[in-house]
Amino acid sequence: MRRTLTMAMVAMALGAGPARSQTPTDVRLDISSGEGRRIRIHCESLQPGGDRVAGTWSVQADEVLAHDLDWSAVFLVSKAWAGGSPPMDVQAVVGGKLTVNGSQVRLNGEVRDLPARRPILLREYRGPVTDWRSLVHAFADDIVLQFSGEPGVARTRIAFIAQNGRNKELYTMDYDGARLAPLTADQSIALSPAWSPEGSLILFTSYRGGTGPRLFVTSSTAGRPFLVSGRPGLNTSGSYSPDGREILCTLSQDGNSEIYVLDARGGSPQRLTNQRSIDTSPAWSPTGREIAFTSDRTGTPQVHLMDREGGNVRRLTYDADYTDSPAWSPKGDRIAFVARTGGGFDIYTCRPDGTDTRLIVSGGANENPRWSPDGRHLVFSSNRGGARGLFVSDLDGTPPRKLETGGLISLSPAWSPRPASGGSALRVTEGSPTPGGHP
Amino acid sequence: MRGAVLGSGVAHVALLLILASARMATSVMIPGPETVQVALVDPTPLAPPPVPKVETPPPEPKLTEVKPLDDTGVRLPPPAPKKKKVAPPPQETPPAPEPAPPALPSAKLGSAGLKGDIAVDARDFEFTYYLVLVRNRIAANWAPPAGMIAQGNRVRAVVAFRIGRGGALSAVRMEQASGMEFFDRSALRAVVLSDPLPPLPLGFTASELGIHFGFDWEAP
């Protein structure tokens, strides 16, 4: 009457304890830090169905899904179509079916354990064929959720600035570089984009109109920019508060750069800093209660923190002669910043109390770090490897990967929030578990 | 000069070989088909699983920089029946469970002698990958209390909780207190911080899964 599980782990059953209600099965597992370990997952090709074009789509979908899982920083991916048998320690296999019928596409995604192939996740995704990437990304996000307790970021987008000669225009693209879309064509200079908390708007600085840098807002999908703040002097580095009701920015209407909070329409300015020094690059904490910013009040530019009202200012960084560009992680546990070390600019993170500083990226000039909405990645601009471009670090010691942005010279990225679950053309149906392979 | 370079090269190659072999050795411990044994129904204790003989990995150094990718999975030191003087034949052992069986596979977390175990309330829960995820999450959230060294030589607390289909925790309670309040609090905090856990696998059809998570500390 003894059954052995061949799939799972190093576990040993030691029988029922008398104190436990339903004769629990004891599974003994060691405690050791599980952080930073990727889960091995094996991707099998999606089976094409329906129209003949499904064969072409499914091959592309295979690669998009494998990229999503790899880039989630949760999985170590092997691919069946790359040849070879799955590694011995694979914990789950991903596959399914991709069916195209006219203008509609259906993805029946499956995740199963090995070797028993019991279902872990079975889900059906339907949508217009033009949106097949979103179906694959949604499946990838669900797989990440299934193994990490938190959905992935495969359906997010990244806004950035593309340089063409003297012009800098605002663009957005999928988080993996696909579906590139220009948002401005002003033949002017756009700078420092920032998403609204629900992802529908992008705030940015622009020299359009020729009267110096002003703050504008535009729809994140299309449309024309609206002026938010055109006060005398600089109007730069705007960002929405976590509740979307306020805008943090740098204005120089009173002589030098100071940090202000405006309402979401750009009115009722409240000045938070009052210094002869230059205060700039403000960033909200995810609670909206604190603000990180750069100030040279101590002689060199350094990242400081203050309360939302401008009080309780304290210096965050001490170890470099120049730090800038703070970005607070979505969970609030870390702050990323740029530090000048020697000739280059490196990216570090530390806790909000200034401890536990970790080097994330070095070599060349690495700038403008911005967090992914799950806090597992940082996107940044860099000149590593020649032309200026965008890179993503998974924060786990693996080398940063370059985002292909259609050959554009790209800088100043900003990662979108996750899309809202509703309001999409995507329809999702939960699968039902098939009978297990055991009596 | 050339000799020094050559010597350094040889030393590096040797080091790489040692590292590579150590890596291969640990990869044997990665969950694979042969290493698993879970008795799900019969409460008779099993013999220790036929785990390849491997060395206990050294305590991980305290990290000050980004943690390198480590895909070694769960570490399984050889099950060492430390306190059991006579190992009874598995088939004849009556189901006489001990509250804290001494033959736990154990691994050290940092320098402290921390161990843990998981028990589930379901006879048909066959997804051990899920328990590993639970273990990893809770272990990552467990900040062992400082000052344990001075206190006794063995401490154990068990926290019970239930996981809903979507991964949300409920009914978190202290099932077995250690008698040291700050240790119990650290265990409870580790569980509460891990909410929500990953959703339950589809193939497990019950509406929730009961977990008993044991936190052990042993004097080094």
Folded structure, characterized:
The complex is a heterodimer of chains A (439) and B (220). Chain A has two domains: 39-152, TolB, N-terminal domain (Rossmann fold, 3-Layer(aba) Sandwich), CATH 3.40.50; 157-415, TolB, C-terminal domain (Neuraminidase), CATH 2.120.10. Helix content of chain A is 8%, strand content 41%. Chain A contains two helices and 32 strands. In chain A, α1 packs parallel to α2 (132-148). A four-stranded antiparallel beta sheet of chain B has the order 1-4-2-3, with helices on one face. The longest helix of chain B has 28 residues, at 2-29. The radius of gyration of chain B is 20 Å and the shape is globular. The N and C termini of chain B lie far apart (45 Å). Mean pLDDT of chain B is 62; it is low at 17-113. At the A-B interface, β1, β7, α2 and β26 of A face β1, α2 and β4 of B. β1 of chain A pairs antiparallel with β1 of chain B.
Task: Quickly list its features.
heterodimer; A: 439 residues; mainly beta; Rossmann fold; Neuraminidase; 2 domains; seven-stranded mixed β-sheet; four-stranded antiparallel β-sheet; 32 strands; 8% helix; disordered N terminus; B: 220 residues; alpha+beta; Fusion Protein Consisting Of Minor Coat Protein, Glycine Rich Linker, Tola, And A His Tag, Chain: A, Domain 2; 4 strands; 25% helix
